[in-house]
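FORM 12-B: Structure-to-Sequence Request
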């Protein structure tokens, strides 16, 4: 649940904002956002390894990490501004109750869940995967 909230606040909101600024370049925008998300996970792995080399406890690192992420998210949210000409949803565009019962909705939800889980599992294990493929531990971090 905590990871889901983090992804919702730190990934989806900036992506939707960026897409509203560049609606004709959706692939490029999503590519940059996904690359930033993955690069952040790789950077966090490197920083975590350095922090643990100084004998910091896991709970203490999580506390500092949560505080740091919270500050970064709050500061970064100040720049999430939709363009003035962004379309505002009208009542006729709202989702109808039958949408939730359709197979397209559930296919989308299941696809997003499986894709997100697989991606997060790979990102979290990039270093062990790299070491297993023969990359030196320091470089794989």
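FORM 12-B RESPONSE
SEQUENCE OUT:
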């Amino acid at each position: 649940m905590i990871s889901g909230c983090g992804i919702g606040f730190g990934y989806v909101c900036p992506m939707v904002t960026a897409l509203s600024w560049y609606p004709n370049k959706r692939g490029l925008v999503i590519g940059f956002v996904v690359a930033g998300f993955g690069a952040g996970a790789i950077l966090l792995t490197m920083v975590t390894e350095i922090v643990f080399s100084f004998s910091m406890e896991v709970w203490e690192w999580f506390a500092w990490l949560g505080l740091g992420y919270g500050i970064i998210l709050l500061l970064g949210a100040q720049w999430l501004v939709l363009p003035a000409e962004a379309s505002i949803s009208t009542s006729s565009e709202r989702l109808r109750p039958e949408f939730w019962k359709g197979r397209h909705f559930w296919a989308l939800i299941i696809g997003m869940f499986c894709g997100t889980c697989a991606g997060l599992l790979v990102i979290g294990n990039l270093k062990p995967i790299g070491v297993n493929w023969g990359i030196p531990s320091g470089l794989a971090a």
